[in-house]
Specification:
- There is one protein chain.
- The chain has 767 residues and is an alpha+beta fold.
- It folds into six domains: 80 residues; 116 residues, no CATH class; 86 residues, Baseplate protein-like domain - beta roll fold (Phage tail proteins - horseshoe like beta roll fold), CATH 2.30.300; 169 residues, no CATH class; 128 residues, no CATH class; 106 residues, no CATH class.
- The protein is built from twelve helices and 51 strands.
- β43 and β44 form a beta hairpin.
- α1 runs antiparallel to α3 and α10 runs antiparallel to α11.
């Protein structure tokens, strides 16, 4: 029996559901309860009626389907959803001015807070919140600060990204934000003490990866007959991953080999203008934990494939070989230790430009190189030597750097601003020749704004005019801090910093065009090279293996006897280790639950969909919502997407286009087609689907050019009336089929529309 409640909590109807009534849930998708039942009378089920199942509340958001067989038989099909359904029906609005079309530069948490703001406006019960810890992925310490993987402490902040929203539903906004932060999203609701908890978060939806539930086919072993393994993708696994690193704050002799002779140092080789990986470093990756070896023993097989040789160390008790000195994720020397088997091993090339998975003689016995090598490129242009500084104090000074009194400020004195950071390094000698050091604020009133740092000296002796001053910390104690003087500059027609656009205590900033100390470049804890290595290792670990989708039905009798242990794993994001020699080898394979179908009559025997693929559902075609103008307005430190399809409202934005921009749009479309070959897409249905999307974009672009030429034609008509321009001059201006009325001198021009040049649809091969 299932009880249906009215919105006020009173019982509306108790129903006996059919055997095919079930719950369907999908990762980053709907969580739906499909009720099928028959009644002897017609019952009106009002919207927002609800029922509870397995600790979740399902509401009626759409009227049920009713089939009237006769006066005494009414068949109902009633889909009910968790409150996550509101993500699909609620429009995203800017929480400040309620705009529906806007770019937003913020941290992951701030993006989600804006989405939650809209959900609480639409939800009569409210209660939506951001799951902070999952979103930030940081550890809270005793001081109330969050420590990131790079070892730096963040006061209630994280990495910032720019996302452009245009008439988007909250579900589309969640997908766009997840795409910007290269992760997944989760909207979860459950009942706790009679209250529905509602959270959204941004993280990889993974639980119990290191302690999966072990299941196998067979009686009383987990799965019943009918398990299926399918290939998840036509694209082969990636073997070698190249880096395209950031260009900011690169040291003067970066990538060159230094030779010291007496008191002189000479450099050989070509300097790299972009960030590289730490050369010849081996990275072991297990369960999200990184271990590094700076001096691995590298050998090469007969075909030139590198592998790592275990050094002849032996554990005194087990007599097992152990590896050379390892460093943990924080840069601590942890000595020689025995890692878990198998532990994937990744090796950086001798030039620091690529990373590949290699065989190790002990730690990864299952891995062997493939006959062909598949290569890919990792865009790490947002990774570069950087330090996120925090503003501990703000000094209001005059043009000479002398601190102003409040009286002087009230009398109209010109105010300049210094930001003071207790933990900042001395920037005096960290400048790069020929470049001016700048500051970009990460949050606060100046978020995304770039300011030059005031300098002293001339020629090669130019240095930032930083100095140590006495300021007061949060405990009102006098401490020394480095103060950075900001130069005023024009931003969007407004001179900043100037009230109300001024820095404040608690704001965060990044210094650019400087040569930071080596620990920010080469250090394991928060050096840029190792930050890039972690990201690339994680990516290659997930995309460097064959990906499968596994479906199977749980043995209900087995699960019921062990339900206390099994139940936590019967949910999205949980991990199950499928042990099957024929399907996954003798070690089995750990797969994530991405879909679940649970019958109400037999909840202990759900049908599971498992996968080891990365689930990212954001559709690149939604990038059509971004405009060229919005890309221009992005802060310098934000990397624009390589495939941005401008979309314009002809009534308001078409006049900003130029011929060069239209031709650029054409090149992007052609690049999309070329990208198909680069990704080795062989499924013709997928190719046709993407080309169809290009045709849709093509129509938009033709309309753009048409509107643009209409405007230009109108302006030329006015010019012809005033100046009686001849027909030759008109045609030289790029218009065709121009005519001039000899009586009035009025011209009329029709421009020919250029073809974007996308190919015809490919014929689909029939099997």
């Amino acid at each position: 029996m299932v009880k249906i409640y009215r919105q006020n909590g009173s019982v509306l109807k108790e129903i006996e559901v059919n055997d095919d009534s079930c719950r369907n849930a999908e990762l980053m998708g709907y969580d739906m309860l499909m009720l099928r039942f028959t009644l002897t009378e017609s019952v009106a089920f009002p919207l927002c009626s609800y029922c509870d199942f397995e600790g979740r509340r399902y509401r009626l958001f759409k009227a049920p389907e009713v089939t009237k067989k006769d006066e005494r038989q009414y068949d109902y099909v009633m889909p009910m959803y968790t409150d996550e359904f509101l993500l699909h029906t609620t429009m995203l609005r800017n929480s400040v001015d309620y705009r529906l079309k806007f770019p937003y530069t913020a941290t992951a948490r701030e993006h989600l807070e804006m989405i939650v703001f809209c959900l609480n406006l639409a939800d009569s019960e409210g209660g939506w919140a951001v799951d902070y810890c999952k979103t930030e992925g940081m550890v809270l310490d005793a001081t109330g600060a969050y420590t990131g993987r790079d070892g730096q402490k963040y006061a209630d902040r994280g990495e910032m990204k720019t996302v452009s929203f245009e008439f988007a539903y909250c579900i589309d906004a969640m997908g766009a934000v997840a795409d910007a932060f290269a992760t997944e999203y989760e909207a979860d609701t459950w009942i706790e003490n009679g209250v529905v908890k509602k959270y959204v978060s941004l993280h990889r939806v993974e639980y119990n990866r290191d302690t999966p539930l072990e299941m196998r086919y067979g009686r009383d072993k987990g799965f019943v007959s009918g398990i299926v393994r399918r290939n998840d993708s036509d694209i082969p696994p990636v073997d070698r991953l190249y880096i395209q690193g950031g260009e900011q704050n690169i040291p003067e002799h970066y990538g060159q080999t230094a030779t010291v002779n007496a008191n002189t140092t000479t450099y050989s080789g070509e300097r790299s203008n972009t960030l590289l990986l730490p050369r010849n470093v081996a990275c072991f990756y297990h369960g999200g934990t990184f271990f590094f070896s700076k001096n691995p023993t590298i050998r090469y097989a007969s075909d030139g494939t590198p592998y790592i040789l275990a050094k002849d160390y032996r554990d005194m008790e087990t007599n097992l070989p152990i590896y050379e000195v390892l460093y943990d994720d924080k840069g601590n020397n942890i000595g020689t230790m025995l890692l878990m088997v198998p532990t994937p091993c990744f090796l950086v090339s001798s030039d620091g430009r690529s990373l590949q998975r290699v065989r190790h003689t002990y730690y990864d016995p299952d891995y062997s190189p493939r006959a062909t090598t598949v290569e890919a490129v990792y865009d790490a242009s947002e990774i570069y030597p950087m330090r996120v500084g925090g503003v501990n104090a703000v000094r209001k000074v005059n043009a000479s750097g002398v601190q102003l009194t409040q009286g002087q400020i009230n009398n109209g004195a010109e105010v300049y601003y210094d930001i003071c950071d207790i933990d900042s390094p001395d920037l005096t000698n960290l400048g790069i020749s020929g470049e001016t050091m700048t500051v970009i604020f990460q949050d606060g009133m100046l978020a995304g704004r770039e300011f030059e740092i005031q300098t002293v000296g001339e020629g090669v002796s130019v240095k930032p005019n930083v100095s140590q001053k006495t300021v007061y910390n949060s405990n009102n104690e006098a401490v020394q801090a480095w103060c950075i003087p900001l130069c005023q500059s024009d931003h969007d027609g407004v001179v900043m910093p100037k009230e109300p656009f001024v820095p404040a205590v608690g704001d965060h900033y990044v210094v650019f065009h400087c040569q930071l100390p080596d620990e920010y470049v080469y250090g394991i804890a928060y050096g840029a090279e190792y930050r890039a290595l972690r990201e690339m290792t994680d990516w290659l670990y997930r995309h460097g293996v064959n990906t499968y989708t596994f479906t199977g039905t749980v043995d209900g009798m087995w699960a019921k006897r062990h339900w206390g242990e099994v139940e936590p794993f019967m949910d999205l994001g949980q991990h199950i280790k499928v042990m099957d020699l024929q399907l996954f080898g003798y070690r089995g394979l750990v797969l994530r639950v991405t879909g679940i179908k649970q019958y109400l009559g037999n909840p202990h025997a759900p049908e599971l969909t498992l996968s080891n693929a990365v689930v990212l559902k954001f559709d690149w075609t939604k990038h059509l919502s971004k405009t060229v103008e919005e890309v221009r307005l992005r802060p310098r430190y934000v990397r624009p997407s390589p495939y941005i399809f401008p979309h314009f409202d002809p009534a308001s934005r078409v006049y900003r286009l130029s011929d060069e921009e239209i031709r650029g749009v054409q090149l992007v479309s052609v690049a999309r087609v070329a990208d198909l070959e680069g990704k080795r897409v062989v499924d013709r249905n997928k190719i046709n689907e993407m080309i169809s999307t290009l045709y849709s974009a093509n129509e938009v672009f033709l309309n753009i050019q048409d509107e643009f030429n209409k405007l230009r034609s109108t302006l030329l008509q006015r010019q012809l009336i005033n100046q009686k321009t001849d027909l030759v001059t008109v045609n030289e201006l790029g218009l065709q089929q121009c005519t001039i009325d000899p009586r009035t001198g009025q011209g009329q021009c029709v421009a020919s529309l250029a073809s974007i040049g996308v190919p015809d649809l490919l014929p689909v091969e029939t099997p």
